[in-house]
Amino acid sequence: MYIFKNAFQNLFRNPGRNLMTAGIFLLIITMSCVALVVCNGANDMAKQYKDRLSTEVILNVNEMKVSEAWEKDETFRKPGLTDELIQKIAASGYLKKTVYSAQMEAVADDLKYTESNDYGDIEIQRAGEDPAKTRIPQYILSGFEDVSQAEPFQSGQAKLAEGGTFPGDDNECLISDTLAELNGLKPGDTIRAKSIYYTDKQGNPLEEMELKVSGIYHREYGEGEKDSGYEIFTKYKILTDPRYTYEPVFYADFFLKNPRDLEAFAREAYASGLSEYYSLGTDTVAYDAFVKPIEQMSIIAMIFLCVVLVLGASILLILSSLIVRERKYEIGVLRAMGMKKSKVAAQLVLESALIMGVCLIMGIVLGSLFAQPVTDMLLANQMSQALDGPSLAGGMGGTSFGGLATDNRPITHISAALGLTTIMELVGIALVLTGVAGAVSAACAMKYEPMRILRERN
């Protein structure tokens, strides 16, 4: 009890040297807290992206093969991708889940738009398809099994407004707040939509669909993206109904149970009827563009942490030895009074522990305040370097990186939250530093003989 009381009183008897020690402790803990939060946040984000990108298999049209075939033979027609084929591929045992969607260009003459629309007809011909007479598209209908799983909602770019719900029935839809304000629409209202094509592939006239507004969404657009508000989200099933659609554009993301099964899954998909004019592969562009910079960010944080700990510990060692030399007479008096070496050492360690305890709390608070700005700055710098400054181009449904396209959006935010793991790591660092400082102080104190110290009085 005496040791604890004396150690506590010594904190106020010698404020100058204790404040100097506290300043070093506080600086180390604060910087370590920032570095650990950045490192752990970056590692978590990189792991999420790696897990998704390594198991996500994207089904895309091989435009190069289609164009080459069409140039050789103008009668060439691209093999169609059907809902039945996607469902057949999705039944593979290699998959843990499948996220598929369909998109259709549509018109709705009853709605108002932010820009004037041309209501005339045009003739279009996609590579590998017959020419067809169509209307000029006014908006995009995007259909999902579960609209909440759509990329804009998953990434947080789009949010459902209060009072609305995601579509539950096949004839329900979500519209943008831009479209809702222009037309005075609210949940429960009905809109009419029609494909830009007049007939299906057999020449039968397409019907007009009636969609009930189940909710309204607000979407934040990135740099280079246009806020058109013309994307309407609905259910996947209605866009595969031949009464309403000419041929929707299908998208499918397959998620493997094991990334090593990619080749086996591809062989199975082609054997199921998938044409060679479609490709299956992982998004290597997104991995190189987004994951590697985050991993480098984590490495930078770890290097910074190591430098802080090495320099901080070195300064503490020197400071502790100097403080003991300054307190040599005090130590001599305690030893002459009969206090054992172990108790003197325990008092010095306890003083360091009390200072460190206060600095640990303050350092965690300060570190948590600085962590998010530092994380944002490092992230912006890493992404800017990886994407060669302004070469990142965002567009509808994807991103361009080095001239290559990816459907994944760049990482724009990493949450620098202070978790229990980080706190435990900081406590461990504090204990090590306290032990080192206390051990050096005790070792230096034990070198001096009490009678010699009192005799010399310096």
TrEMBL record:
Q: What is the lineage of its organism?
A: Bacteria, Bacillati, Bacillota, Clostridia, Lachnospirales
Record-annotated ABC3 transporter permease C-terminal domain positions: 302-384
Entry's localization field: Cell membrane
Q: What is this protein called?
A: ABC transport system permease protein
What's one Pfam family here? FtsX
Q: MF terms per GO, please?
A: transmembrane transporter activity
Q: Which GO terms describe its cellular component?
A: plasma membrane
Q: Which UniProt keywords apply?
A: Cell membrane, Membrane, Transmembrane, Transmembrane helix
Which residues, if any, are the signal sequence?
Answer: none
Q: Which PANTHER family match?
A: ABC TRANSPORTER PERMEASE PROTEIN (PTHR30572:SF9), MEMBRANE COMPONENT OF TRANSPORTER-RELATED (PTHR30572)
Q: How does it sit in the membrane?
A: Multi-pass membrane protein
This protein's superkingdom?
Answer: Bacteria
Q: Which organism is it from?
A: Murimonas intestini
InterPro entries for the chain: ABC3_permease_C, Macrolide_Exporter_MacB
Where exactly are the transmembrane stretches of this chain?
20-38, 299-324, 345-371, 426-448
